[in-house]
Amino acid sequence: MGNCSTCPSSSKCSIQNKDKCGKMLPKYGSIKNIIGVISGKGGVGKSTVTGIIASKLAKAGYKVGVLDADVTGPSMPRFFGINHERAEIVPLDEKGTEYRFVPVTSQLGIKVISMNLLTQVEDQPVIWRGPVINGVLNQMYSDTEWGEIDYLLVDMPPGTGDIALTVMQNFPLNSVVIVSTPQDMVSMIVKKVVTMAQKLSIPIKGVVENMAYIRCGNCGDKMRVFSKKSAEEHAAYLELPLLAELPINLDLAEALEEGETESYAALNTDYDTLASSVLR
Ligand code: ADP
């Protein structure tokens, strides 16, 4: 982290914010807050939580962007129902060595960039080694026409490997939200990513316990299907504040599948606590 008052570049520097010193900045726009959504393990609901938070913030009137940094397993275009669209790739010179990307805009005006909006066919894999993926990821952040953004949500790659490290080291993340499910084995893996963020001095907002319970259709009681421990106990193991407990919800699962995440999540008051915890 830099110290602007003693930095020799201070007079020429446009950042003037020691927390963002040395980090990449977007070339085409300005972003007030960057929030990473991270889990350490795939399939726990990281993309789901990203989609819910983005939809809620957009509905509340914020200018929102989503960077799908899960390059090898991107799901954001589907969740927003924009998977049949393609982000425009604009060459900046005749040789075609530099480009900028035009993000695809969702119904609520969320600007989304994802590997799946840049490749021709949605189910075509990217079979690239880490350094290539890292390069593309950096470009997806810095070379996208974001314009003015209040909140950029980064759907982080799972794990504590090279690609997650790229995001945490290069992007000026203001904070991260951790997503977990109520299983000791998942908590153990999620703890690794919590420690990684702490070692890199990235503030952590807290943990969202996803798939925390199902609600009985007859009596309305909460039934914890994965663990006898409470969400608070799992959060205590991670030594993090509990931001929200999200139930297993078939309507949500269907909305995600149908690309109707925004219309479902934006109007669902169950997600208000989660959205407001991000704004704090
Ligand atoms: P990750 O990004 O961690 O890999 P996803 O957000 O893609 O996980 O979620 C994996 C799958 O689980 C998705 O198909 C999604 O529909 C489903 N899912 C996630 N959270 C819930 C939930 N609370 N209720 C029902 N289905 C969910």
From TrEMBL:
Species assigned in the record: Clostridium amylolyticum
Gene3D superfamilies: P-loop containing nucleotide triphosphate hydrolases (3.40.50.300)
SUBUNIT field: Homodimer.
InterPro entries noted in UniProt: Mrp-like_CS, Mrp/NBP35_ATP-bd, NUBPL-like, P-loop_NTPase, YlxH/NBP35
Protein name per its UniProtKB record: Iron-sulfur cluster carrier protein
Annotated ATP binding sites: 40-47
UniProt entry tagged with the keyword Iron-sulfur: yes
PANTHER family: IRON-SULFUR PROTEIN NUBPL
GO biological process: iron-sulfur cluster assembly
SUPFAM superfamilies the record matches: P-loop containing nucleoside triphosphate hydrolases
A GO MF term: metal ion binding
Family: Belongs to the Mrp/NBP35 ATP-binding proteins family.
Family annotation (CDD domains): Mrp_NBP35
Function: Binds and transfers iron-sulfur (Fe-S) clusters to target apoproteins. Can hydrolyze ATP.
The entry's keywords: ATP-binding, Hydrolase, Iron, Iron-sulfur, Metal-binding, Nucleotide-binding
UniProt-listed Pfam families: ParA (PF10609)
HAMAP family: Mrp_NBP35
